[in-house]
Amino acid sequence: MTLLPRLRWIDVPFLVLIGAVAACCSWLGAWQLQRYQTRVQDNARIAARLQQDAVQFDSLLPLNGLDEYRRVTVQGEFLPDQRAFFGNREYQGLSGTHLLAAFKPTDSQDVLVVDLGWVPMAVGVVVEPSQYLPGGVQTLTGVLMPSRQLPVWLAALQSQPTADRPNATWRTVDVDAIAAVWQYKVQPLYLEVRPLEQPSQPSGTGNQKTLPYFQSEIELSTGSHLGYAVQWFAFAIIAVAGGWFLLQRANITPDKV
Question: Fewer Cβ atoms within 10 A, N terminus or C terminus of the chain?
Answer without folding.
Answer: C
